[in-house]
Amino acid sequence: MTRAGWTGTLIFAALAALALILVARATYTADLSAFLPRAPTLRERLLVDELRSGLASRLIMVAIEGADAAARAEVAAGLAQRLRTEPDFVGVSDGDQAGLERTAAVLFAHRYLLSDAVTAERFTVAGLRAAIGDTLGLLATPEGLAAKALFTRDPTGETPNILETLGEQRLPTVDGVWSSRDGRRALLIAQTRAAGSDTDGQQEACAAIQRSFAAAAATLPAARRSVALRMSGPGVFAVSARSAIRDSVIRLSALGSILIAALLLAAYRSVPALLLTFVPVVSGALAGVAAVALGFGVVHGITLGFGVTLIGEAVDYSIYLFIQSAQRSALGPSGGPAGADWRQSVWPTIRLGMLTSVCGFAALVPSGFQGLAQLGLYSIAGLIAAALVTRFVLPHWRPHSLRSRDLTGLGTLLWRALVKLRPARAALALLALIACLVLIGHRGELFSRELADLSPIPAAAQELDASLRADLGAPDARYVVVVSAADLSTALQAAQAIAERLTALQADGSLGGFDTPTRYLPDLVTQRARQASLPAPAELKARLDAALAGLPVNAARLAPFVNDVEQARTAALVTPADLAGTPLAAALDALLQLGTPTVTAFLPITGLRGGDLSPTALARVRSAIADAMRAAPAHPSAAGAQGSLLDLKAEADALYTHYLTQAVSLSLAGLAAILALLVLALSLTRALRVVAPLALAMLAVAAGLSVAGERLGILHVVGMLLIVAVGSNYALFFDRLAQQERGTVPRTLASLAVANLATVTGFGVLAFSGVPVLAALGRTVAPGALLALLFSAWLARLEAPPTAAAAPVAGPA
Amino acid sequence: MTRPHARRVACAALLALACPAGLPAAGTDPLDEVLQGLAARRHGHVAFTEVQHLAVLDRPLESSGELLYEAPDRLEKRILRPRPETLVLSHGVLSATRGHRTRVVELAAWPQVAPLIESIRATLAGDRAALERVFSVRLEGDTSRWTLRLAPRDPAAARAVTEVLITGEHARLETVEILEADGDRSFLTVGPEISP
Fold first, then answer.
1. What is the domain-level CATH number for residue B59?
2. ipTM attached to this prediction
């Protein structure tokens, strides 16, 4: 090796070691924060918090299918029982009667603090008479039996009132376990201790469910064991998305590498050349991850997924080196360092192509969408590293004896074909016209507008989720009022003030319904007010005597009631701990986030019949919140709280639309920068000639995807940038061919064909990924790269090849 | 929690049987004759009064209202006094409406109770086999003046309701008495038919 070779190798080794250290020490995440804006506003942070750890993020819906109803119920009950002993879960609901009875006992014990009917008026003579009369009326109905047993202790009917406020459980049960309405699934809901964003914790929880299910199913006789477990929920999604991304990255990059390796082996007929080809690829990947780790602190799983795509371009560099200089090194090792003139003839073109790509990706770096910004930085660092390794390290490592296959024959063949094709290039104008017409025809539905489209969740899993939600009557919470305050009681007071106004809105038909943590746990001020409204025993007895006149019951029978009221007057106020072990605790837990320094309360709102809220209803809810926040006299200390309405879907989609618009405008800026660079490096005419086939390829791909029914999203936009990145190399080589002597044409054509095949293979494999975003990338770039080469070749101004006899002669004379 | 369910069933049973029926069809077995007579009825609308004797109260609780029936499976009990409440059993769904609030309960939610409801449908359809699968049925008297004694076979239902006694003359149902296991009982008397 020469002195320059040693220098290059040493610098390379040092940088590679540094990158390895950075990569090994980097933090990797797979949660939704990839979608978090880098400088989130309060609303955006609430939104993402909500998605990550709020309300629904900790619920896992579980269904048991198969076998017979009794077997399903038995397994579900066994599963629930096992899960209740698992530390990963805070609650399991399965319609089990014991839980309901525990709940009823807790409600009964604290009824005078929990019932919203407890006011001073209710304990006046008239109030008592009305309440007891109501309860007597209840005794005449089928529900009377439950009330009958409690009548002497709860004659005013506070327990039935609380139960009514909590809402009745409407799920049908089979053998004491919830069942879907069609009777084909046994159902339960598990609430995990881990937040939805804690993917490791969620994975633990999913594994615990699978383990417990297997154990529960094993108790069935073998003949009835054909039960199957289905799970869904945000945590399940996070876990499966992570493993899908991981699988995709590992499996597809392995498959892509093997296919590319096979292709290159066929092209080079040399194992050392093949191995050397991957040196720039691996160096690029290392440099990319290291740069992201340095620049962002955290590397997102999805970035690694996108990073697979780097193989596509980085591998091209070494292909250009090995194939285009093949003839020269075959001529003899005595001609100085291998590829010496490659550096003068081919490298400038690669360098310009690389700079073009860097320009394109640099536009992504300022994106507010972290996933995109990371992809930009990753690609820039990766491409620069790959190109530099190809230029300064690889030529020195190439053994002098290396003889790769001479592909001049293939190149000549392609050359002839191109020259024959050239007269038909008017067809490209027609193609451009058709593509434009298609895009105009689809202009309404060209771009996707929903964050859900970025979701790595396959459609089948989303369908299962929707069907389980329908079975469980657990609609996706789209609207939620978020109340934050410095402490629990203040947050609950503000929630209570808002809830009172929402009740009015529900009564006038603006809302379908809502939930509030104060339904399960009233704030301390409200509890104290209820306590204060209870009369002392002597007073209560006197009022009862008056109230019961004419009713079929006398005060003496209601002595237990007087006792219970007296106890309630001095009882300790209800705290979250009093609800422990009941489904109420799980419900409360879902609606409260006890963080420091902020406690957040959530009031999810549903529209009429589970639909969306009308704009008028939204406006009313907003003004109700504003009204409540202006500190109602009944809740003076609620003034320290903040409340706002989040429309999760609208916020998420707005965020996505913002990302998409930004991605499109940044990409356009990138394209402008590329054009400027090309004009500077070449000339305006040549630059336009380089850009034209790329623009045409993008148009054709966009039109093709639209026709196939795909809506263009961020990943398609990124794919377009990749088409330009990869395709610019092709176009630039054709530009060079038009400037240089004819002898280099066959080798260049051959190298382009091989490089293109490698790229199309790499991205083609990605198109089959189970991760929708990766598949979108593959479906854009694979056809795009192919078309970019085809169009570049078609538009290239190549002279006709020499006669057949002269064809194999190549290289400088 | 099974007791209120059983109570609902009993109520539904009396609703079903309270409707005045047409003339009994000719049959050899008196029970068949009674059931077929009741089944011949496609709809009915009558007044009712009910007296409940509850241990916790000093005096019996009285209520009154209307009963409506549409064959084959819609029953409605409109309690008007002392506190208005409407109970509707339709296609296996029981809904209770008081003021603006309606609670809906699917009978399938209580598999131990659902067969009892099915037995009412069977009674109205004259399906004696289905009725006897759920209750042990005893007929006293003859078709001109009969008493049907229904004892729930399901142990859970039997823990709440000991027996339902239904009396009638020919195809007209007159009283329904429910004897509860704790000694409480209720007695419903069917009043005059209400013309539409």
1. 2.50.20.10
2. 0.73
